[in-house]
Amino acid sequence: SLTAVGDSVNTASRLEAMTKEFAAQLVVSEAVAQKANVDLSAFDSHDIGVRGRSEHITARVIVKAQDRAL
User: Which terminal CB of the chain, N or C, has fewer other CB atoms within 10 Å?
Assistant: First the structure.
């Protein structure tokens, strides 16, 4: 079983790996964007699985941030 720290690390690792998969500058979880009060709805959304989690998380993939206003 994973600890809270382990879950955070696994989630961060998966999001970081997505930057390579999508050749993106940044990948942000929807939960973090909402907590930061940042509207990323203009960017592609992907549901991703994270080891140790039964539910998927939604992530926004930002390929070229300068192309769209954040």
Answer: N
